Amino acid sequence: MKRKILPLKESSLPGLALVLILAAMLVTMFAYHHWTRSKPNERGVIKWDVISYYAYLPATFIYGDVTLEFLDDPPEGFVNDNKFWFFELENGNKLIQTSMGLSILYSPFFFTAHALAPLFGEARDGYSSIYQLFLVLSSLFYVMIGLLVLRKILLRYFSPVATAVTLVLVALGTNLFFYTVHEGPMSHAYNFTLITLFLFLVIRWYETPVAKNAVWIGLVYGMIVLVRPTNVIAGILLLLWGVTGWSSFRERIMFLLKRSPQVALMAGCFILPWIPQMVYWKMLTGSFLFNSYGPSGSSFYFGSPHIVDVLFSYRKGWYLYTPVMLVATAGIFFMGKSCRQGWRAILLYLLLQIYLQASWWSWWNGGSFGLRSFVDIYGVMAIPLAALVDSAVNARKAVRVVAGLALLFLLYMNQYQTFQYTRGVIHHTGMTKEAYWLNFLAFRADGSSWQMLSIPDAELARKGIYYEYYTGDDHEALRAMEPEAAMDSVRREIESDRKLVKEIRKHASREEIPYGEALEMVVERVYDQKVSPG
Q: Which residue range(s) make up the domain with 517?
């Protein structure tokens, strides 16, 4: 059947949406210019997790030592002022905790900055402003590629109008915007693109199951898992995309068995991006495979997921700080007509993502705007979002108006809450119901809100024990007590909290220690935090 040619105005809307998105992101990037903040210990871009993601590049190509042994006898003038973070292993080697996937993606921009640094009078040390600028540009580059691929996916199933609206909502109405323009070199913008590209390749392979498509699926999937190992769950899209029931699931298994040479090719290509990582681990640990998060005590607690907290809490609730994704979740049930072959895969993928996030020791993702790990799946969630938008576009006028105003408000909320976060109105870790509503849509934080925060104890959380310190609590009375009496007071407080006691018992069981010993560990920790100055 000959494809109908749409009027230029309507067919050009997705392209115009991408131009709008690019302009908005560029303006915001240059308005904040985080890359110019390059003081020691205060870099605007290479900070926190990015220190480790990025470390492989300067360590290898500037200091010539990915093992970081040069830190024991550093070059003249070198100061390790938050340039390299590492864990010292039992064998004495210095391990970069995160995998090198992001360094691979950063590398074209790193080498460009390294070549241009002398022209701009910048030090070729890997950390001056030009390196940070190109890291920021790398996030924008990859996100725009991801949005271009997403445009291709959406136009397969939805109208240009629904596609354009969805692109704008995903890019400007979620925390993808923040993790592109403010903290772009974090992993999430890159995984957004990788997972979106992976889905596109999966769809194309099932339409045209040839070796070339299998190669690309394997390579991209390998990079997805290398950048963030928990994103291995994206493989559910490969297994279930197009499955509409048990009968078609059996057909899918037969399809994969029939094309086992291509599946084997995928597996081989999956391993290719991992080869440098496995060589690195072998050099430092003696093993090709290594749990690099083990030394820090980071782990999952699958038996105690914080699902309600992840979705709805004032601390980091996904649907509270990214309400567009509540609409997208509802959109899964609108996919029956437009994208029937995808709703089961998307629903299961979403449920797995929620469960994994809720089971991680730091379910709130540390300091972040909203739950940043969910940014990775926004290319997939764009499909049910577009399904709901498409339904609204084709509804009667009153519904279109109400839906349009609602979506516009959600976009505004994301932009304004992003602004609030950059100004500290929304706290990076400790938001509570009281602090949220006191500062709702506020330009500046109300001073009293700083006495309403609740800060989780990260050291205890790593053990699966969730204790919070309220910033408004006065501990002077506790400090005035004799230590033994003060610890008794803390012990009574802890034992009065049934949920906390249950978590302590679970920790004791995991560690095979008496409950009393685990309880005293918690009591001492809480006492020290409350009584010790600072």
A: 457-531
